[in-house]
Each structure stands twice: as structure tokens, then as C-alpha cells.
Design a protein that fits this description.
The protein is mostly helical. Helix content is 87%, strand content 0%.
Length: 61
């Protein structure tokens, strides 16, 4: 079974990546650089999403 929070994290990362990708393309970044940035951006976004839940728990206790 997949963790719903993890699924949501990946969904949000993918959705927001489209915006970032468009910005990079408008600035005429090289395609191979965009691919590298995509990997790191999505990994960081998913990781940071988890920290958001940790922080939210501190405020609700």
C-alpha cells in the first residue's frame, strides 16, 4: 500500500515542476540542464513536504 502523504508529495512536486520547467525554458536553459534540475527539484520538494508535516505536528500538539 502506498502512503497517501507520499503520493500527494509527488503529485505536488510534479505539478509545480511544470511551472519551474516553463520558467527555465523561457530563459533558454539547455535541455540537459533542465533534466538535471528536474531530478533534484522533485527530490527536494518531496523531502521538504515531509518536513512540513513534522512542523505542523509541533503546532497542533
Amino acid at each position: 500500500m502506498t502512503d497517501p502523504k507520499e503520493e500527494r508529495a509527488y503529485q505536488l512536486a510534479n505539478e509545480h515542476w511544470e511551472y519551474i520547467r516553463n520558467v527555465l525554458e523561457k530563459h533558454k536553459e539547455f535541455p540537459h540542464i533542465i533534466e538535471l534540475i528536474e531530478f533534484h527539484y522533485k527530490a527536494a520538494a518531496v523531502h521538504f513536504y515531509g518536513h512540513g508535516f513534522e512542523e505542523a505536528g509541533k503546532w497542533t500538539e
